[in-house]
Amino acid sequence: MDTGAKFDWTEPVYNFRRRGTFIVSTSDGQKSHMHNGCWISPMSHKPPRIGIAMAKEMEGAAIVERSRRIGLSLLADDQHDLLIRFLQGAHTPEQLGVDEIVYGENTGVPLWAKAVAHFECWLDESVDLGDFYWLIGRTVTAKVNREVPDLLVNDIGPVNRVKMPFRGYVDVRPLPPYPGSE
């Protein structure tokens, strides 16, 4: 999701896709950021890689460039109300509920605790595509947390009072080092 989507004449066609709802997250040891993801796709099996589209206007884009770490939380259908609160401005663990956020063991990024699944990635490459970056992440964690239905974007319904662009929060936890930087 980005603020320019309403101007894209192809958006109505994209909206016919059936896809799971992801929260994309990152952290740099000073600030963490989360937002709902729009395009996420497996890119490679050997090594495992995921491609993630991230709008440049998201403050998380600059954090990813600095920290080279990305997290993905595949939301469960029973997290609909929590997602709506998030979209309406509850962007911090305190606002969401401190038990709703956990931190990745390999990258330290915030992840939604009760998500169906989590991925943690180290950024291998960032491709500038105009309004978006295409981030290619090397997957270091892929974990199923719960075997429940995921929340499909198509089933979220209209959301009033969406707060865009998403803002991060101060987060000065020590993070695991980027591989090879020790």
UniProtKB/TrEMBL annotation:
Record's signal peptide: none
GO molecular function: FMN binding; oxidoreductase activity, acting on the CH-NH group of donors, NAD or NADP as acceptor
Source species, domain of life: Bacteria
Every Flavin reductase like domain range: 16-161
Protein's name in the database: Flavin reductase like domain-containing protein
Species per Swiss-Prot/TrEMBL record: Sulfobacillus benefaciens
